[in-house]
Here is the input.
Amino acid sequence: MPDLDDLEALSAFRRDLATWFRQHRRDLVWRRVRDPYAILVAEVFLQQTRVEQARGYYARFMAAFPDLATLARASEEDVLHVWAGAGYYRRARDLHRLAQAVAETGLPTTAAELEELPGIGPYTAAAVASIAYGEPVAAVDGNVRRVLARLFAVEEPGGRWLQKVAEGLLDREDPGTWNQAVMELGSLVCTPKHPSCATCPVAGFCRGWREAERYPAPRQRAQRRVEAVALVLRGEEGLVLEKRDGQSLGGLWGFPLAEGEGALEVLLSRYGLASARPLGTVEHVFTHKRLTIEVYVASWPGPVEDPGSRPLSVLDRKILALAGSSIGHEDQ
Ligand code: SF4
Here is the structure.
């Protein structure tokens, strides 16, 4: 098997992957532009959203905020409203803060400077700097990690090792295209399960293909199970919604919610109610916790909100859907 330390092998490896990418790359709207802001927005969506889903959210976001200045002028609530459904709302708040920080000066052009901005980690900084500005820096995301671990048959690739190997393979003449080619290989061919080694353009350089799924070893993620209660308080013109705070859902609006023992009593006493009727259960998974939410409903004579005019998280939309379906049943 050719050794990628050998310059001739390395150049054949680059050529084979680049040829494959030219022929098989997906036609994604953000790949057709050179606008650094558009590339940044796409990369922020792609941090935790699959390409197929990101397409729709990206299009909606760019239609509402086509440039840095428009995004900087918008209110946080408007930004969250447009972002709603894409999850990981901290990304939206950081992008908004970033726009406000650089609206006057424009985006910086190097990975090191980009990394100083809110919400921009090493991967996003390298992706934007290489794709938009041609800086020769390697972008290492989950796809690249998997491809490199398999190419070199390494079960537990560390961050430094990954960056060093990725920099060694990087085509410094066209780093943006190269970074996208390695990521695309991970998305389309070297997939987490059942990689298509038989059609892989770099199979001849791969040490791990015989047991590809062994590399990299799965990362253990502790996920807490949490019980919670949500209250749907119905008024004549709408529902009671509270503005959330905290890292994951801060700035969004949602139903009164409490976690842990005595959660229902906490909510009832917050609104001065004696009781509420059980409506059903909603499950929602965050990165580190799995929420099981018992939803209760009661009438409410006080002020209410129109849920359609407030940015709601996916979790609250599930509760809203449950409340809506129960209205349908009651009407029948
Ligand atoms: Fe991945 Fe298989 Fe290609 Fe190796 S040969 S890089 S394991 S798809």
User: Anything to note?
Assistant: The two ends are 70 Å apart (CA to CA). The mean pLDDT is 92. Residues 98 and 135 are 21 Å apart (CA to CA).
